[in-house]
Specification:
Layout: E1 2-7, H1 11-26, E2 30-31, E3 38-43, H2 45-54, E4 63-68, E5 76-78, H3 83-92, E6 96-109, E7 116-120, E8 123-127, E9 133-139, E10 142-155, H4 163-166, E11 178-186, E12 199-202, E13 207-211, E14 218-222, E15 225-229, E16 232-248, H5 254-263
Parallel strand pairs: 1-2, 1-3, 3-4, 4-5
Antiparallel strand pairs: 6-7, 6-16, 8-10, 8-14, 9-10, 9-13, 10-11, 11-12, 13-16, 14-15
Helix pairs in contact: 1-3
Bound molecules: NADP nicotinamide-adenine-dinucleotide phosphate (NAP).
Length: about 270
């Protein structure tokens, strides 16, 4: 089996990376940055997002696992003290695969040029540095509302505990193939009106965002990546047909991770 390691880059993460490489090579596993069967991230959830985007074009051939060197992560859920145990599990035991849904984002340009396509593990968001974001929101081809405000966030179930949660969105179990649309400071008065609640869409409901002002540029984020776009005709968001595959060696239920991260890690 071939493996890769994405490290946060700090001393602790680099030390653990070196140890894991050495142990796994002792077990005659091959370190391969280009085509790993198993991508290991060492750092936090941010590092895990980086690993995901490094290998997002080979999701059916790469499984992921995360070791956290700071606080408990949602994706990085092995602690440094467990590294030896994890290495033996990887080398000796077949792992179970757990799949989580992803968000697909398509950015259609005005001039009919090439569509930019992204996969997000946490979320995509649309913001602007130029006043308010003004967008028509279509759901499944039907006009739903005209949004005015700071922006919109469209998250995956596993991303629901990240930016989405800070925006008042609900926490969604990753066994549900959905995306969630949350508002950022919408303008609501007698003239402008939005639904004001997070929307949870099923797999077959595409959410299309159509900019109203021709001259406005957008900051579009995909997980930890931010890009500026001008001349956007529409942004299409939907549940992707692709999924992330986690290598699972032990049970760590989603709601336990939510509890330990946000309530208390004491029993
Ligand atoms: P960052 O601003 O350095 O860190 C964002 C925080 O979100 C980190 O504490 C990170 O955990 C945590 N996080 C990432 N994914 C998570 C998840 N699925 N559930 C719970 N917490 C999660 O940015 P970054 O490290 O590059 O990560 C990018 C992510 O930041 C975006 O995908 C977005 O979700 C999040 N974000 C959050 C807010 C907010 O909460 N107000 C605003 C903007 C962006 P670690 O410390 O373990 O890395």
């Amino acid at each position: 089996m071939k493996f890769s390691i994405t490290s946060k880059g700090d001393r602790k993460s680099e030390d653990i990376k070196k140890r894991i490489i050495q142990y796994l090579e002792d077990f005659e596993l091959e370190y391969d940055k280009e085509e790993p069967d198993l991508a290991i991230s060492v750092g936090g959830d941010g590092t895990f997002l980086e690993a995901f985007h490094t290998y997002s074009d080979r999701l059916e051939r790469t499984a992921f696992i995360g070791v956290h060197t700071g606080h408990l992560g949602f994706y990085a859920d092995w602690v440094p003290d467990e590294v030896e145990k994890l290495v033996i599990e990887i080398a000796k035991n077949p792992y179970q695969i757990i799949e989580y849904p992803l968000l697909e984002i398509q950015i259609h340009p005005k001039n009919g040029g090439e569509i930019d396509r992204y996969l997000a593990l946490n979320e995509g968001s649309v913001k602007t540095a130029e006043g308010s974001v003004v967008l028509d929101v279509n759901i499944k081809g039907e006009h739903f509302e005209r949004f005015r405000g700071d922006g919109l966030c469209i998250s995956t179930p596993s991303g629901s505990t990240a930016y989405n949660k800070a925006l008042g969105g609900g926490i969604i179990h990753p066994s549900l193939e959905t995306i969630q649309v949350t508002e950022m400071a919408s303008i609501n008065n007698r003239v402008f009106r939005t639904v004001g609640s997070p929307l949870i869409l099923p797999k077959h409901h595409v959410c299309e965002l159509i900019p109203i002002h021709d001259d406005r540029s957008f900051l579009i984020t995909v997980d930890h990546i931010t890009k500026t776009y001008t001349d956007v005709r529409s942004i299409e968001c939907s549940v992707s047909d692709k999924k992330i595959r986690f290598a699972r060696f032990r049970s760590f239920p989603f709601w336990k991770r939510v509890h330990d991260s946000f309530i208390s890690d004491e029993r």
